[in-house]
């Protein structure tokens, strides 16, 4: 495996962790935690994930259920699996 593919896999892994963090952050108000949108960490997480999630969100929202993070994670894991077999 080349260095470039290894770097791409590491970047995709980091993006997947940030997407998971976004999902957890979105569920915090439901369990009673106050989440300030002005928090710099929350802003960074949303700034990283918005360009990835927003384009597919209109096609993956069913009522109150947004499946776009799951679709993104499946896509990332598929790409990682494909690249690691090269």
Can you put this structure into words, describing what you see?
The mean pLDDT is 93. The protein is 70% helix and 5% strand. A hairpin with a 2-residue loop joins β1 and β2. With 86 residues, the protein is mainly alpha-helical. It starts with a helix and ends with a helix. It has one domain.
Topology summary:
Layout (H helix, E strand, L loop, with lengths): L2 H25 L12 H14 L3 H4 E2 L2 E2 L1 H17 L2
Antiparallel strand pairs: 1-2
Helix pairs in contact: 1-2, 1-4
Instruction: Give the overall average pLDDT.
Output: 93
SSE class: mainly alpha
Helix content: 55-70%
The sequence of SSEs as H and E is: HHHEEH
Number of strands: 2
Radius of gyration: 15 Å
Number of discrete helical segments:
4
Nutshell version of this structure?
With about 90 residues, the protein is mainly α. It is built from four helices and two strands, in the order αααββα. A hairpin with a 2-residue loop joins β1 and β2.
Overview features:
single chain, 86 residues, mainly alpha, two-stranded antiparallel sheet, 4 helices, 2 strands, 70% helix, globular
